[in-house]
Predict the structure.
Amino acid sequence: MLGRNIASMDNAYIKQQSVKEKVLARRRKLLFRRLALFGVMAVLVSALLVSTLVSRNAQLAAKKEQKAKLEHQVRDIDKQQAMLRSEIKKLKDDNYIAKLARSEYFLSKKGEIIFNLPDSKKNAQEEDVSY
């Protein structure tokens, strides 16, 4: 068994089988290359889709935060608008205008004396402040 010399047969069938084996080997090699290329392309497409998904998720989160802020601003503006509408209704009342003029601009009725008293809350806050 150590030194067996085996001679190969050199006929058409053996040559044909040899060529067939080479063709099959070449086809396997090309198949492997195609599958590898397809795998690389699949990984690239998957990576692209995942990155797109992540970026869209981040954009969606930012838009939700922006929406929440804008809704808060809308509520504040609605409150302010309601306050201004009530102020408009009050300004149509002559008694309210007279009271407002007396308190804000120190106007008085004929024969009325106005005393300006300091506000106790403001004085307490001013005394607490130390420089």
The chain has three helices and no strands.
